[in-house]
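Usage

Read records sequentially. Each one opens with the input sequence:
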Amino acid sequence: MAEVRALEKRNVVVVGKTGAGKSTVANKILGLEKFAVKNVAPSVTLKVEAHCCYLDDESSPSRYNLKVIDTVGLFDTNVKNDAAIKKMKNFFQNECPEGVNLVLFVCRKGRFTEEERRTFDYIMKHLRKQISDFSALVFTHCDGQSDSANQEFLISFEKEASDIVSFMKKGICMVGFPHLSNLRPQMKEVIQEEMKEQTQRLLKIVMKADKRCLGNEMFEPTFWEKLRQCSIL
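and closes with the structure output:
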């Protein structure tokens, strides 16, 4: 008789600037190439897109019904605040009324730009109470360097940005998903195995998400007003 797994629903929002790798991260969580990957976007308009999948947790009797939400354009400076917030609010009210279990902030590995740092300062000051418990940070483009080099970067980041580290209650993950098209077959196999391991790191963060949601807070007018004033929007 087939094992009956307890079904748990998780809603995951992926946010970050165009080119940071958030759509790739969203695809890796899904295990499907559903979100269009764009490295540059000279004219960005906000688009909220969601796809669903099932994920089995081999370490428990749970099965997750995942909804992964990609907020294309949310963190890009040429999207107007009012239009962006209206679209976001309408999406969550209509498509995700139960709320959000996890917010993944996706950033390209390296020093934060002044704009990114200012954004995190604003979020930590005005939205800490609402979203800190549901937040994780994902550094992308960590491929091409040794594990020790990436670990050194993470140690340095934890010292320089301890406030951001403490804000991300669901942790920090470092991943790299390079293009494989020009690699030799043997090298491609090695990289594919590394990418599988890094995908598992992402999935562990997703499976650590609580059953409780960032729910009622999202539908209070003050939440969206604070988000609208975020300088990077």
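Summary fields computed downstream for this record:
- The longest helix spans residues 185-207.
- The beta strands are 6-15, 47-56, 62-72, 102-108, 135-140, 172-174.
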